[in-house]
Design a protein that fits this description.
four-stranded antiparallel beta sheet, coiled coil, single chain, alpha+beta, 333 residues
Length: 333
């Protein structure tokens, strides 16, 4: 036995060295290996470029959304400030209107005081003959009272109340008769009441705006709670995958069955409640998944002996779900 080993071992060792040397010196095999390695490297670089481009687009979108939100917040703030200034100007305008109405009321009050004084002074005036505008005459007439409407007289046949509209114009001037005085007083009173209501409404709206601003600023000052990191337990997803059969039976027009061969495809169903990405064998990105929606992905490039499909959180990279595909030799799901 030892003699046999002594004879065989010297023969096998040179033979193995010769075989390895031939394999190393085989240029075609070496070229094929280099070509495969170059293809793998190119695919890896392509995947890396696609991932980097996606991340860059995502950051750009986030920056654009932040800029839009900031611009919108500034526009809303400017609008609120303009509304506040408009309300303050409205209150000032109403205050000026109220002051003008009060000034007119004061003037009307002075006119009324002058009228009352004139009417009191006109009391006791006598006429030998008082001729009215309609031609009526009163002999030995004496004024007993005067007011805003007319005068009362005593004459030879008794008492008579005569309105200013039928009295001579001179008497109306002496008694400061003003037929529009009562109407103006009513209009001024109505205007000042309306103005007061408008002022109160504007003040209440301004106070409400101030309360909303104070409430908004207090909410902004509250410390925000830190969000929990996205993990596989807190943010879940589901994924399933199967390979379609390479053969399919079809029915011809003559009723005969015919089996045709179709290219196998990998069908993937993925669902997530966060932004997620589907990876094939942890290398190739097949697509993204929108939160709350089921995404169907199809590919004809996969490992025929079985592949691993992974659902990852796009933001953190955490694994949300995994699925294993069967080989082509095993029956489909």
């Amino acid at each position: 036995m030892s003699l046999l080993r002594t004879l065989i071992i010297p023969i096998l060792i040179p033979l193995a060295l010769l075989t390895n040397s031939c394999m190393e010196q085989d240029p075609e095999k070496k070229a094929r290996l280099e070509e495969k390695e170059a293809i793998r490297e190119e695919r890896r670089l392509e995947t890396s470029r696609g991932t980097n481009e996606y991340i860059e687009r995502k950051y750009t979108q986030i920056a654009e959304r932040k800029a839009e939100a900031q611009a919108q917040a500034e526009a809303e703030k400017a609008q609120r400030e303009a509304e506040r200034i408009a309300k303050e100007e409205r209150i000032k305008e109403l205050a000026a209107i109220e002051a003008a109405i009060e000034a007119k009321q004061q003037a009307e009050a002075e006119k009324e005081a002058n009228r009352l004084t004139a009417c009191r002074n006109y009391k006791g005036t006598t006429f030998e003959t008082l001729t009215l505008k309609d031609g009526t005459e009163y002999k030995d007439a004496k004024v007993t009272s005067a007011d805003a409407i007319g005068v009362s007289i005593m004459y030879e046949h008794g008492l008579k109340r005569i309105p200013f509209t039928n009295l001579p114009d001179e008497i109306g001037k002496l008694c400061h008769y003003d037929p529009e005085a009562a109407t103006r007083r009513q209009q001024l009173e109505a205007r000042i009441i309306q103005n007061q209501y408008a002022t109160m409404e504007a003040i209440e709206e301004l106070q409400a705006m101030a309360k909303r601003e104070a409430s908004s600023s207090s909410l902004d000052k509250k410390p925000r709670q830190r969000k929990r990191p996205h993990t596989q337990n807190s943010q879940k997803g589901s994924i399933s995958a199967h390979i379609t059969s390479g053969e399919q039976d079809i029915v011809l027009n003559n009723g005969q069955n015919m089996r045709i061969h179709i290219k196998p495809r990998l069908i993937i169903y993925a669902t997530s409640n966060v932004e997620a990405v589907v990876y094939l064998d942890n290398k190739r990105i097949l697509g993204s998944v929108t939160p709350g929606k089921t995404r169907t992905l199809k590919t004809s490039i996969f490992n025929k002996n079985g592949s691993v499909v992974t659902l990852r959180d796009r933001r953190t990279g955490a694994i949300l779900a995994k699925a294993l595909t069967q080989s082509l030799d095993s029956p489909g799901e």
